[in-house]
Design brief:
By secondary structure, the protein is mostly helical. It has helices at 25-54, 56-63, 72-88, 90-100, 102-112, 114-123, 130-139, 142-157, 160-175, 177-190, 195-216, 227-235, 237-267, 272-279, 281-300, 302-326, 329-364, 369-409, 413-435, 443-448, and strands at 16-17, 219-220. It has one domain (16-448): MFS general substrate transporter like domains (Growth Hormone, Chain: A). Strands 1-2 form a two-stranded parallel ribbon.
């Protein structure tokens, strides 16, 4: 069996693997798994720091007291715009892997994180205008793009039977950048340090992540720029259905990560230090549970796990509405943390569904073996950028909903009612598209069909 070669491809520099066939079990067991795991580890590191930089302003706003002259609405608008940029850049970041190579783009995308971090270090002081904070905050959105390129890259390294676990671990390791930066901020606030201390810690870490990616990651030569894949993915209805479901899972995770601390300070009168003591817990558990969601999806089917996740998310949101109306801080905090955990489970299961759906479509087209695997990788890799981008827009919606709810009612209750309705719709869509049994067809009609209606319950 041919081992993965890292010799440079003709006319191209860097470490390029010429032969890669993870679906071949002999290849995978002898050489593929070791290479894939190494790339996964350093991909997680870079994506982890990318998430930290993306959610940087959810922490910085806690440092920004009355002397900064910002209202709660200003802070929600600021974090909404950071989330928006992070969502938009996910599309080009996805296709950058095919253009430059997974290793090469990881180096570039990690190095780009220096721009928003150094800029924030420069302007972070009272007296700076809101427009300046907004502009610098927008730069932090590039950290959101790292997720899309990382997931697309890792999707190419692992066989279908391992994708739920691998993508869940990759995404979970990146997502955990959210609670880590919140924990670091908690320590700094507790020690009476300023926001520049936090930024000063992350600047050298970014350099380390880019350097390690250059030293230890690989590009896969068979992953080529394919604009047709992007077009085909955009034309497929499942890309947009999964985008909608991902709004409910990841959009909730990232939106709540930005908003949790602000809700506690604005609605329950918590100080920044008091808020920081609990805001990290939800994102931490939600990140750690994401690989579990992927593993459960591998075993029971992503559609089933996703459906149950939406049921539970709706129940947790209903408890949040009660806690918000009764002004019960303890119940509110507990329910919010539970909701974070459920978003993490749903994140893992929804991303497992993507390659499974396109692999099922490959089988329906009569494709088998490596041809079917290549078809599935091609479309699932292209669709991940679109799904990740649209899903992240859910974070924008959550922060804007909180902003409007606080402006209109002085609390987040109205926003939670809207979220509950959304989860109900997401559950209905999951059931109708992926779990509802197809109507029984007459035998003659089934026999006449080359491709009978697909069932996606196992994806």
């Amino acid at each position: 069996m041919t081992a993965p070669s890292t010799a440079p491809a003709p006319g191209r520099g860097g470490r390029w693997i010429q032969h890669w066939d993870p679906e071949d079990e002999t290849f995978w067991n002898e050489t593929g798994e070791k290479v894939a795991r190494r790339n996964l580890f350093f991909s997680v590191l870079s994506e982890h720091i990318g998430f930290s930089v993306w959610t940087l302003w959810s922490v910085l706003v806690l440092f920004m007291g009355p002397e900064y002259g910002l209202t709660p609405a200003d802070k929600f608008l600021l974090t909404s715009m950071v989330t928006l940029v992070g969502a938009v850049v996910r599309v080009p970041y996805t296709f950058a892997v095919a253009i430059f190579g997974g290793r090469n783009w990881t180096i570039v995308s990690a190095a780009l994180l220096l721009v928003p971090t150094v800029a924030a270090f420069t302007v972070m002081e009272p007296g700076t205008s809101f427009s300046t904070f907004l502009l610098v905050g927008l730069l932090a959105g590039v950290g959101g793009g790292n997720f899309a390129s990382s997931m697309t890259n890792i999707n190419a390294f692992f066989p279908l039977r391992k994708k739920g676990w691998a993508l869940g671990l990759n995404a979970g390791g990146g997502n955990i950048g959210v609670p880590v930066i919140q924990l670091v901020a908690l320590a700094i606030i507790g020690a009476s340090g300023g926001p520049r201390v936090l930024l000063g810690i992350y600047i050298p870490l970014i350099v380390v992540a880019a350097t390690l990616a250059a030293l230890y990651m690989d590009n896969i030569a068979s992953v080529r720029n394919d604009t047709g894949a992007a077009t085909d993915a955009a034309k497929d209805a499942h890309t947009w259905i999964m985008s909608f479901l991902y709004i409910g899972t990841f959009g909730s995770f990232i939106g709540y990560s930005f908003a949790f601390g602000q809700v506690l300070t604005n609605q329950f009168g918590r100080t920044p230090l008091q808020a920081a003591y609990v805001t990290f817990l939800g994102p931490l558990l939600g990140s750690l549970i994401r690989p579990v969601g992927g593993r459960l999806a591998d075993r029971y089917g992503g559609a089933r796990i996703t459906a149950w996740a939406f049921v539970a998310m709706g129940a947790a949101t209903a408890v949040l509405i009660v806690a918000s109306m009764q002004k019960s801080l303890a119940l509110f905090t507990a329910a919010f943390v539970v909701l974070f955990v459920l978003t993490g489970l749903g994140n893992g299961s929804t991303y497992k569904m993507i390659p499974g759906i396109f692999q099922a479509k490959a089988g329906a087209r009569g494709l088998t073996g490596e041809e079917a695997a290549a078809y599935g990788r091609r479309l699932s890799g292209a669709s991940m950028g679109l799904i990740g981008a649209v899903g992240a827009l859910g974070g924008v919606g959550i922060n804007l909903a909180f902003r409007q709810s606080f402006l209109s009612y002085g609390s987040g209750t109205g926003a939670f009612v809207a979220f509950l309705a959304f989860y109900g719709v997401a559950l209905a869509v999951t059931w109708a598209v992926y779990l509802r049994r197809p109507a029984v067809q007459p035998r003659a009609e089934v026999a006449a069909e080359a491709n009978p209606q697909l069932s996606y319950a196992e994806v």
